[in-house]
Each structure stands twice: as C-alpha cells, then as structure tokens.
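Hi U.,

Before I forget, here's the chain from the pilot set. I'm dumping it here mostly so it's searchable later in email.
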Amino acid sequence: MDPVAFVLSQLPPPPARVLEVGCGTTGELALAVDAAGYDVVAVDPRAPAGPIFRQVTLEELDDEGPFDVAVARYSLHHIHDLDHAVGKIAGLLRPGGKLVVEEFGWDRVDDPTAAWLGEQRGVPAGQARAEWDDEHAGLHGYDDLRRALASRFDERSFVPGPFLHKPLERLELEPRERAAIDSGEIQALGFRWVGLSS
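Structure:
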C-alpha cells in the first residue's frame, strides 16, 4: 500500500483535523490529505508555502489543537529530543487521538543485511556497513523510537517492512527486498506503526 493510501486508511471521516510532523519540502502527503477533505496543518522548517503549511519545527508550532490524528513519516528519527517531541504530539491530540508513524530502524542492519545492501550498491559488505553507519550516526534507532512511542501511546498496529530501496533510490527493488525479508535473509528496517494517545 502506498504511503498516501496507508495514511488515508487510518483516518476518521473528513473533515477531521490532521497534523503532519515533518512534511518536507514538497508536502505531497499533506496536500493529498487536504484534497481528501481533511483540515490539515503540516509543519517543517523547510515546508513549502501555502495555507496548510507552517515553516516551523514541531516545538515552534503555536496551534494548540486538538487534532484527531497526527502523522509522522520518517521525521521522528531526526528530532533531537525525541521524548519531548512525542509528548508534545500526544498533548496536541484529543483524548484517544491517533498517531500514525512510518519509520525505519537504521541500526537493525546486521551482517547479512549489510551484504545485501553492498550487493545493491556494488561495494563490499564492510564498506556498505561503514558508509551506512556514517550516514546515520546520531539519529535515533529502532529501540529509541519504539520506547518513545510506547511511553505515550497504546500501540494498535505494528507492521515491519522494506526500507532499503528508498535510500538506494531504486523503487523497483522493493519486491526483491520484501522477498529477502520474508525468507529471513535480511532484516526488515522499515515499519508502519499506529497508536492511540493514552
């Protein structure tokens, strides 16, 4: 299921209020959710111009909510104070509000996964592993993300899945990556998670 379809599948009927944390420079998801009839606020310091966008960090957001749903796609691992950010999201949601997350655990790369990554990049496994670790040093890993989410939300859904095809910029690799995960050859780095504010 593509990202827009996944997020829309998790939303109550419009015109519910939806907060996107980390919409990026294009705001594609926020625009799609807005077009579906939702009341959207999308935050990112690099957000595009437009009425639904706020060029601020989550910390700087002055909208006090409440929101029915918050969405964070590949943004939480970047936030310096993860616990505070997850707490702020929880505080912006109505009681029982939903958080929809798409993330990855960069630190779940083991030797077989590094070998697979190296094969796709055309470099030895050790080099692939070293470059991967360098690229992601200082970012929150899998355990930090899961712990922070569990501290403020009751998990309703957790679905691991492929991720490596994204940074490789080779979307055609997704079926092969998924097959390697399903066979136990490599780790599933990506995950989709849904929780309710507790």
